[in-house]
Design the sequence.
């Protein structure tokens, strides 16, 4: 079981990848460079308020638009420990998991968690506790298979262990032997 | 027990070695085709090398297409392409489309016969789902997924819910599949089909040629879809059989399969549309935006860069000139499209009208080159996306080729019927323009 705790940074809704990281930075790979430009398309002052370990809370269709991994990498480099969104654009959701950035779906996320509050996420059952207000909400549990990807630090780290064998994604929740 | 499966469920089940799958399940599937554009590929190469993979699972089932910043936009782009060519040589990538063979990946791949009905295509670009028009299951993924698929020929995925979008009725002659797509976006919104596999059907879809079908499936990403498909029918078979020389086995949804939703879209009398800035689901009839001054018009992209789209644009531009206040950029989607456009005299007409012809590729769509906007400028584009800042400064309206071409002539947002007839004589026996050509 893993818990992720941190302070909420609530940022908008329907945020596109162009706002998370403008197109001209999409070829950057250095985390130090990506961190500096996080959310620049939306508001260049946003990153000045971020602290490492913050948890991003945001509205619907987060990460809509491009499939570029640079966008979630910018958020990871900027220090976010996890993202809780009312819904995700699927490629962005997938990219977050594949780079080992934990992501959680929760309708009404911005009602349950406000900017500045402390929250704690239980990744096994998806329960998210609002430590500042004493309430809790239930996101979708993370299937063991995806948990393994995140715990290995991402798909590449997991796949490295399978070189020379076929990569078998076995029954839901089970890693191959 | 026979479970009735949707199209996506059927294709996924086949590739997972299962008799059935259900929405929400995580499964591993074998993939038939792995693709990447050249802007994305350096990241894919880095992931492949980080993986420590020594070989591709099957070089003949991998295609790299240069389209986003080609010919090389910067020294960095040139060096990346050099690295890509070296990688392709070293590992035996079967298909590398560059220089004279370069084109927009989602225009080019369907033309090549690399994807066929019943197959799975995946790759590192958000518009990979376009290929679903060929009755394939096509999904856009990230660099890591693409690198892992190149090494293992597999990917993990979450089985999507399926929905139907049934389109009936005959639109206004100047409204095409892009206008129908904008109407769908207006009705369903950017999250309308979030994470879902769309099956487009209905008499309107059946009547579309493959160019038109590819426009529809391309725009599905802008309503949040994971994948989009159109049933294999005679149009599909006629298109595909000309272009490939290997067997394929099409799949169809079961009649009693379960769908999360069935949307009925009535396209009867649909008028030409534009989507207002700054999102693709803000479609309105052209009249609602008429009169807006426009600095640049871009006709092309993986949405509307095919021969049928250029024919529509040429029909509007014939005998007319681009407005002095407006720049018109026309970007044929692939070498095949460009060759056909030359052969039909379309390029000559575009040049006569005062358009800029750019090499096959993405052009200014993503604000990278060949027509970036200045601050405060307004552009009408036949691409799929108009988010803030996407093409540089300024704002972008989305439209189909008929409205885009009309706008270029008028210097402001306009439909073909807003333009005075061209001064030059029309072909003998014709008194009106024929948008159905």
Sequence:
């Amino acid at each position: 079981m893993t818990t992720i705790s941190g302070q909420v940074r609530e940022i908008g809704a329907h945020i596109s990848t162009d706002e998370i990281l403008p197109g001209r930075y999409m070829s950057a790979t250095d985390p130090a460079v990506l961190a500096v430009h996080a959310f620049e398309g939306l508001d260049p002052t946003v990153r000045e308020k971020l602290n490492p370990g913050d948890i991003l809370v945001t509205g619907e269709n987060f990460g809509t638009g491009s499939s570029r991994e640079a966008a979630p990498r910018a958020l990871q480099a900027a220090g976010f420990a996890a993202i809780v969104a009312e819904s995700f654009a699927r490629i962005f959701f997938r990219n977050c998991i594949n780079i080992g950035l934990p992501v959680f779906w929760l309708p009404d996320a911005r009602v349950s968690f406000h900017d500045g509050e402390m929250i704690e996420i239980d990744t096994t059952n998806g329960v998210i506790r609002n430590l500042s207000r004493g309430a809790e909400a239930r996101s979708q549990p993370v299937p063991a298979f995806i948990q393994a990807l995140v715990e290995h630090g991402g798909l590449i780290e997991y796949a490295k262990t399978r070189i020379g064998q076929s990569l078998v994604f076995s029954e839901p929740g089970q890693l191959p032997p | 027990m026979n479970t009735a499966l949707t199209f996506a469920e059927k294709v996924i089940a086949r590739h997972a070695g299962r008799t059935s799958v259900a929405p929400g399940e995580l499964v591993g599937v074998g993939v038939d085709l792995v693709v990447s554009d050249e802007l994305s590929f350096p990241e894919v190469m880095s992931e492949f090398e980080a993986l420590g993979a020594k070989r591709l699972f099957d070089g003949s089932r991998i295609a790299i297409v240069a389209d986003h910043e080609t010919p090389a936009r910067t020294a960095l782009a040139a060096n990346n392409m050099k690295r890509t060519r070296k990688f392709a040589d070293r590992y035996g990538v079967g298909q590398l489309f560059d220089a004279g063979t370069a084109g927009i990946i989602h225009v080019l791949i369907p033309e090549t016969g690399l994807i066929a009905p019943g197959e799975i295509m995946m790759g590192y670009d958000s518009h990979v789902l376009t290929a679903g028009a060929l009755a394939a299951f096509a999904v856009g993924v990230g660099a890591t997924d693409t690198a892992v698929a190149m090494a293992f020929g597999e990917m993990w995925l979450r089985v999507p819910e399926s929905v139907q979008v049934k389109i009936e009725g005959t639109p206004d002659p100047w409204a095409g599949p892009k206008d129908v797509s904008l109407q769908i976006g207006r009705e369903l919104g950017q999250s309308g089909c979030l994470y879902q596999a769309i099956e487009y059907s209905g008499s309107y879809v059946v009547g579309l040629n493959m160019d038109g079908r590819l426009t529809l499936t391309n725009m599905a990403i802008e309503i949040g879809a994971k994948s989009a498909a159109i049933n294999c029918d005679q149009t599909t078979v006629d298109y595909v059989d000309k272009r490939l020389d290997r067997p394929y086995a099409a799949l169809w949804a079961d009649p009693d399969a379960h769908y999360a939703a069935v949307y009925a879209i009535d396209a009867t009398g649909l008028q030409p549309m534009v989507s207002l800035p700054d999102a693709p689901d803000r479609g309105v009839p052209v009249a609602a935006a008429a009169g807006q001054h426009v600095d640049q018009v871009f006709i092309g992209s993986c949405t509307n860069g095919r021969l049928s789209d250029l024919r529509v644009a040429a029909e509007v531009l014939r005998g007319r000139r681009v407005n002095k206040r407006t720049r018109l950029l026309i970007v044929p989607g692939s070498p095949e499209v460009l060759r056909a456009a030359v052969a039909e005299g379309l390029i000559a007409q575009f040049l006569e009208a005062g358009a800029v012809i750019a090499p096959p590729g993405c052009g200014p769509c993503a604000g990278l080159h060949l027509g970036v906007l200045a601050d405060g400028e307004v552009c009408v584009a036949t691409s799929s996306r108009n988010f803030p800042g996407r093409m540089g400064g300024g704002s972008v309206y989305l439209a189909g080729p008929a409205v885009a071409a009309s706008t270029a002539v008028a210097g402001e947002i306009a439909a073909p019927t807003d333009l005075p007839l061209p001064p030059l004589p029309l072909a003998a026996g014709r008194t009106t323009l024929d948008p159905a050509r």
Summary: Confidence is low (pLDDT under 50) at residues 171-177 of chain A. The helical segments of chain A are 17-20, 31-37, 70-77, 90-98, 109-112, 144-151, 155-160.
